[in-house]
Amino acid sequence: MNYSQYRRTKKEWIKLIFIWLSVSVSLGILFYRDVAGIAIILPFGIIYERLNRRKALEKRRNELSYQFVEFLQVAVSSLKAGTSLERAVTGAKERLGTIYGREDMIIKEIALMESGLRMNINIEDILYDFGKRSGIEDINQFAEVCKLAKRAGGNLIKIMEHTVGCIVCKINVEKEIQSIISGKKLESRLMTAILPLILLYINFAMADMAKKLYHNLTGVLLMTAVLILYAVCYLWFEKITDIKV
What we know:
Blueprint: H1 10-31, H2 35-41, H3 45-80, H4 85-96, H5 105-118, H6 123-134, H7 137-152, H8 156-205, H9 207-211, H10 217-240
C-alpha cells in the first residue's frame, strides 16, 4: 500500500457526495434563492474533496504511527530475549493480532514482511520499502538507519528504542497542541456558522429588505462577494489551526 495515496470506499464516496450536495443546496438557496446558485457552488466540491482527502491521509498516517510504535515495542522485547530481527517481526503479528484485526494497517504490513522473508528478501530491504511507502519521516528514517545498522553491525535494540522514543514524543507534542487549539477550532466553527445564521434571520425577520438581495445583478454580485469571502475565511481558519510537528 502506498500511504501517500488514498482510495475511498463506495460508502465514503456516497457520504462525501451527500454532504456536499446538502451544503450546495443549502448555500445556493440561502445566498441566491435560485437553482443557478446551486449549480455555481457544486463544482467547488472538488476543493472540498481534496481537503477531505488530505485530512483522511493525515488521520491514516497518525494511526499508522501509533501502530508502528506498538510493533517496535513488541519487536524490541523479542530482540532483548535473544531472537533475530526476522523472528521478532514474524512474532509481532501473533502478539499484535490480539489488539488489531486483519484489516488494520500494521497487521497487513507484517503479513507483507512475512511474504518478503519467505521470498528471501532481506528484512532491512523490506523495512526500507515500508518506510518509503509510509510517507512518515520517523518510519522512513528508522528504516534507513536499520538498513545501515544491519549491514554495519549496529545496535538494533538501541536504534529501535530511540525510534520509539522519538515517535512517542512527537505524538505527545501533537496531542498537547491539539488540546490547546481545540478551543480555537470550536471558535472558528462557530464564527463560520454566524454568517448563514445572520442571512436566515434577515430572510425571516426582514423579508422586505431581503428581497433586494436576490434576483437582481447588484444583489447577485454582493452575495457572490460575501460567499467568496466566507469561503476564504473558512479555508484560512482551517489553515491556521492545522499545526504540524
